[in-house]
Fold this sequence. Notes:
Elements: E1 2-7, H1 11-21, E2 26-33, E3 49-51, H2 58-73, E4 81-82, E5 86-89, H3 94-105, E6 112-115, H4 116-121, E7 137-141, E8 145-147, H5 149-163, E9 166-169, E10 172-177, E11 183-188, E12 193-195, E13 198-201, H6 207-214, E14 228-238, H7 241-247, E15 252-255, E16 262-264, E17 272-277, E18 280-282, E19 284-286, E20 293-295, H8 313-327, E21 336-346, E22 353-356, E23 363-367, H9 380-388, H10 394-399, E24 418-421, H11 422-426
Parallel strand pairs: 1-2, 1-13, 2-9, 5-15, 13-23, 18-24
Antiparallel strand pairs: 3-8, 4-8, 5-7, 6-7, 10-11, 11-12, 14-17, 14-21, 15-16, 16-17, 19-20, 22-23
Helix pairs in contact: 1-5, 1-9
Family: Belongs to the MSOX/MTOX family.
Domain FAD dependent oxidoreductase: 4-387
Cofactor: FAD
Amino acid sequence: MTRYLIIGAGNFGAGTALSLIKREGTTKVTLVDTTQFPNPRAASHDVNKIVRDDYPDKLYMQMLKKAMPMWRSHDLYKTWYHEVGMLRADSSDFGDKSIASYKEMGIENNSHFLPVGEVRKRWNGAFATANFDGLDKVLFNPTVGFAEADKALGAIVQEAVNQGVEYVLGVMTKLNFGADGACTGVTLQSGETLLADKVLLATGARTASLLAQSAPDNTQLHAGDRLLATGAVSFYAKVHGAQKEKLSPIPVLKNCLPEVKGEGMSILKDGTIKFNCDMCFTNFVECPLTGKRISMAPDEMVYNVWTGPKFIKFFQERARKTLNGLYGKEVEDVAIDAYRMCWDASTPTHDFLITPHPHCQGLYVATGGSFHGWKFLPVIGDYVADMMQGSLEPEFADRWAWDKKGGDGHSANPTYQVVGDLQDWLA
């Protein structure tokens, strides 16, 4: 019988807790996070996030073949999922490749290309002046959409607790190791020690720094160049009255053109529309215990949670450019209400890092969401639980391994590339 300890109640951690508590042979599952759930600092905690299954990458499509029916019909998920469709303005061959993948995988889907002129006329003319420069067609996928992220995440943690998971409030300061070097548990800021047979770090952007501060001199334990703490900026605005009515039928829009690079997440009942800038950035600072510079998520709450209408100048300008590109003149008088930096762990290929730690028995990691992991919420826990129990299928284990067998130059989420470092914009 096995005692599991999961640090981090975001998407990967919450999903794993729920999967493990249902399995035979589990004696105890403890889920630790720094606040009551859902944690507002978690990358998974958000107004809403895109839920789509159009991946040219068949490994992730395989997972979504299981996840999408759950988003549509499972009691835990369907309340939060809104199938409004999605437009993708993209000059690459993404659309052709994803349509081909649907056919190859035997997934029913009627994605198709719409002439730009038709996109401008449909949906009450909401995209009449959007920036589609250089494009003659836009991909439309009618059977995807978005989910209310913080509410869905909260529901998963609550279900896990209902099933018997113990939720512990605490800040992990370090991993603990036995005489043989195996991981035996963690120490919290309060001084309390939590023991377990298997410890999972589902700690997102904080994973690299937690490994370093747990064993400053043991570089084999450190993440090295496998993981990078990266931030991305989201923002939202509210529309009212006739404008709210006009925008009520809009689908999600992802615009990959260099002068736009962002996403508009349809519209909530209260008129809120959330947006992302499709770019990410690092935050290189000195790690106190190792003296080395690594990218770390900032501690200051202003760089982690939703703030007001004033923000760092670079991001205000970038957000406005994205907003105007997505909706054109339709939003020229719409004010941005709030901004948020969302921190995630990015890997070199944007593949997840879901693996036993090869240099520490009893220690496992589930991270590397790389700004595309959230949509897997209904199924990700099963894959992580399989990994912890030694039964993860080889094609997933190889792709998500600590030490990958070479890189083939692919990127599982090619639109989120690093464009700079936060410290440069704060200077």
